[in-house]
Amino acid sequence: MSWKLFSLLLQASGMTILVSAFAIVAGLIIAIALSALRLSGNRLALGFVAVFVSFFRGVPLLVQLLLLFNLLPALGISLSSLSTALIGLTLCTAAYQTENLRGGFAAVPPGLIESADMLGFTPVQSFLRIKVPIALRLTFPTLISEAILILKASSLVSVVGVIELTKMASNLAASTFMPVELYAAAGLIYLAINQVVTLIGRFAEGRLPGTGVPAR
């Protein structure tokens, strides 16, 4: 396989990284907001979170992307293929990250919250400055695993017209009749990206502040 073909795969991998990174970060923000609704104890909020998580975890991502791609125009909402892909991936990972954070929030020591109350923290301050950091610290390895899963799942955005790594490999394979070489190269690029994400995650985890939670 020529360097020209490989360079095209590398360029397409940039879209894979962009889409995945956006989905992970935006999904985490949504997951934290949904966790706040869940912790509020409000029945309507609890019901909304339950339905959201159940739908986006229970329906295959491919179906979600196709549904968004066809539903939004029917509702008069015109978005680019990239925007549709970003929304689909973000909502999907948000549901998974919400469930991942559940255990982290449940492990926050009640004594820390009581101390915050005594110091005059508002519920919002207590949530953002105590609960969220501890929950993120406790679930950080799971967050890295989710990032890797989203990187691999990003190959599905090709169904809505986004030219990412897998789609580029497919296009090139169809025009050059070199499917084995191109898909093998794409697989190696995915593997390299995931290894980098894993290394960055381990490096960052070792530098996160402690949670004050005793080890189990």
Explain this structure:
Helix 2 packs across helix 4 (81-106). It is flat and about 70 Å long. The protein has eight helices and no strands. The protein has one domain (3-205): MetI-like fold, CATH 1.10.3720.10. The protein has helices at residues 3-40, 43-58, 61-74, 81-106, 110-118, 123-153, 165-176, 179-205. The protein is mainly alpha-helical. The chain is 80% helix and 0% strand. Residues 211-216 have low confidence and may be disordered.
Question: Which secondary structure elements does this structure contain, and how are they paired or packed?
Answer:
Elements: H1 3-40, H2 43-58, H3 61-74, H4 81-106, H5 110-118, H6 123-153, H7 165-176, H8 179-205
Helix pairs in contact: 1-4, 1-6, 1-7, 1-8, 2-4, 3-4, 4-6, 5-6, 6-8, 7-8
Concise synopsis of the structure shown:
With 216 residues, the protein is mainly α. The protein contains 8 helices and no strands.
Features:
216 residues, mainly alpha, MetI-like fold, flat, disordered C terminus
Instruction: Based on the coordinates given, report the CATH architecture.
Output: Orthogonal Bundle
DSSP helical segment count = 8
The CATH superfamily turns out to be MetI-like
| Integer average pLDDT | 92
**Which fold name corresponds to the CATH topology?**
MetI-like fold
Beginning-to-end CA distance, first to last residue? 51 Å
Give me the Rg, rounded: 20 Å
Largest sheet: none
Q: Using DSSP, what is the number of strands? A: 0
What's the helix-strand series?
Answer: HHHHHHHH
Return residue spans where pLDDT drops below 50 for at least 5 consecutive residues: 211-216
Give the tally of structural domains. Answer: 1
The top-level CATH class is Mainly Alpha
Shape: flat
